[in-house]
Amino acid sequence: MERSHVTTSTASLRDIDKANMLGAIAQLPAHLRDGFARASDARTLVERTWPRESHAGSATPRTLVVCGMGGSGVGADLLPAVFDTNAPVVAVKGYDLPAWVSDEDRVVCVSYSGNTAETLRCFEVAMQRSVVAAVITSGGKLGELARERDLPVVEIPGGLQPRAAVGLLFGALAGIAEALNVVDRDVASIIEDAASGAQLIIDSNADLDGGTEPPALMYARDLKDSTIVVCGASESVAVAHRWKAQLNENSKVPAFASSYPELDHNELVGWTRARETGGRWSLIELVPPNVDAALMARMDITRELIGDALQASLRFEPLSATRAGALFELLVLGDYISAYLALASGIDPSPVERIESLKQRLAGR
Ligand code: F6R
């Protein structure tokens, strides 16, 4: 992040951010800690949902199934990227649980609003199979139904956009995973590592009034008016999906996530005629923690081969020594770049009117 542009009108960018998305991003370290603490309060109740004696003394469910959509589903992807888990974590982003989910598995339903149709449907199915470990929500129907049935509810504060509550939701999910022994090593200190990685990016990008533009705003300007493909590899694939969603919802631009090395076996060829589609394209690469030399060489060659098709080509390599720190560094950078891309285009990052309108129209049927 070497460039330095003199600030022109950064103060007016703040005026566009009516619901203070920038403020919510800066809260992420505090949110991680708060979410984790809230789950610890529910720990005894969650442990009761996995009675070891009824499962031949097994300390851990066979799988942890996490149901949640959009901003509430992100934690399901991040959990196995950040932690070494004792059981597979399966993300369900839809209306139903897989047929194999049974008494040997445990399900966590996550919905910030508590009113998302798909997650409510999964909750009902999980209830019928008696496999619910907990719900994470700020309230809504999900909170109400879980409480009626005396199930553990990790209640997180409302008033945010669901995607801006990622720290609260992820911290809470990590706490539930710990209570179920799906994660067991140094969980509290890994949450601290994540918070430190996030803080590193916040420290250099939150200040719009410091005389020079934050690096994330400069990167956002490079990406303006293009369709963005965000590529991760191994653990950073989960973060690439978060970037894609943040670019969609904050910046209101088309963006897609992809992953190395798979993309070298198909998309590499598809880029050949990208310019003929008439649009402008940009590529973002998120280097995973502890990247190996073969993967870096692959990324270098790929970039050379497709460079002609691109408006901007950005690669981000985290500085944090820990896996959690590195992943949250990348995640928060995406939060800032997507929010600044909105603001630099005169758009308020917070509202997602189309999602609201779709939900209303579906509810009216
Ligand atoms: C909006 C957002 C959306 C929602 C999604 C599910 O900020 O992030 O992706 O997360 O529509 O709604 P909830 O999270 O309330 O279950």
Description:
The protein has 365 residues and is α/β, with parallel strands linked by helices. The chain has helices spanning 10-16, 21-26, 28-41, 43-48, 74-82, 117-128, 140-148, 166-179, 187-205, 215-223, 236-249, 267-270, 293-306, 323-344, 353-363, and strands spanning 64-67, 89-92, 106-111, 132-137, 153-155, 227-233, 255-260, 281-286, 310-316. It has a 5-stranded parallel beta sheet, sandwiched between helices. It has a 4-stranded parallel beta sheet with strand order 7-6-8-9. Helix 6 (117-128) links the parallel strand 3 and strand 4 (132-137). The longest helix is centred in the C-terminal third of the chain and has 22 residues, at 323-344. The structure holds fructose -6-phosphate (F6R). Fructose -6-phosphate binds at residues 69-72, 111-113, 116, 119, 161-163, 249, 352, 355.
